[in-house]
């Protein structure tokens, strides 16, 4: 069993000293520290910690926002990964986020349930909203790079035998955009 710490600051101008002192005071034998944004997917030190964690280990972090700022679902996914490996975790700033105690386990499970339920509600509401918008004639996706008139002109030139590579610069688009143009069914 090891007591591992995780410390993070967002920019290279910030320092990790306070977090590292807190983690050492809690008995961390190894501290994984990095200077990366909490919303960044490129967090090599966090990834390494999650690879290194073993059954019986305790992971301590100064606060949940040090772990990630990618939102509650990513936070829960990281915490679930930790517990799925047989390890426990503890946040120094959020006493309820402490699976080293029975009460903490219950609270963490409750928060996980609430987050999953909230996520399901969000998915249900956004799906219903998309259906309403489609029914009202709202078009989704990117706007076309070419107006209908430009599409007709480019298609006419292509059907006349001009190469897409020659047409594309006059419309400031790629040749593949010209290749994708299809005649409108009559």
From TrEMBL:
GO terms for molecular function: DNA binding; DNA strand exchange activity. Keywords: DNA integration, DNA recombination, DNA-binding. This is DNA invertase. It comes from Bradyrhizobium lablabi. It comes from the Bacteria. Residues 2-137 form the Resolvase/invertase-type recombinase catalytic domain. It holds the Pfam family Resolvase. Residues 146-158 have a biased composition (Low complexity). GO terms for biological process: DNA integration. The active site is at residue 10. Residues 141-163 are annotated as: Disordered. Belongs to the site-specific recombinase resolvase family. InterPro entries: Homeodomain-like_sf (IPR009057), Recombinase_CS (IPR006118), Resolv_N (IPR006119), Resolvase-like_N_sf (IPR036162), SSR_resolvase (IPR050639).
